[in-house]
Design brief:
Radius of gyration: 19 Å
Mean pLDDT: 94
Oligomer: single chain
Strand content: under 5%
Helix content: over 70%
Structural class: mainly alpha
Shape: flat
Order of helices and strands: HHHHH
């Protein structure tokens, strides 16, 4: 492997590690809320309600960025920001899943009527 390939490999590895850490944070947040019903719950929710929750989480992230913690305990501040980012990502995932599930259902209906 030449130097350019090594640099590219290093960049990919760094990206994959960051993605894995973020995905783990998302998963941890989701499993902590399994008592709310998990996937079955968000699939039964009206999609506009999921969008409203996404907006709320974005607002919480915006609020968190101005937390006074950033001056006193940056590690705690960074954790709070990362957790809010995971909340935003989880609601975006739920919306994506909601739409993709509806698309599958429509496709199945179309196939059964053809």
């Amino acid at each position: 492997m030449n130097a350019d390939e090594m640099k590219e490999h290093q960049r990919r590895l760094e990206m994959e590690l960051a993605l894995a850490a973020f995905t783990l944070r998302m998963h941890t947040k989701l499993t902590a809320n399994m008592h709310k019903g998990g996937r079955a719950n968000w699939q039964q929710t009206q999609v506009h309600d999921l969008f409203s929750r996404l907006d709320e989480e974005v607002a919480e992230l915006q609020e968190a960025k101005w937390s006074p913690e950033r001056a006193h305990d940056f590690a705690k501040y960074a954790e709070a920001i990362a957790n809010e980012c995971a909340d935003v990502a989880n609601f975006a995932m739920m919306i994506s899943d909601w739409y993709l599930e509806r698309a599958k259902q429509i496709q199945k209906q179309n196939e059964s009527t053809s």
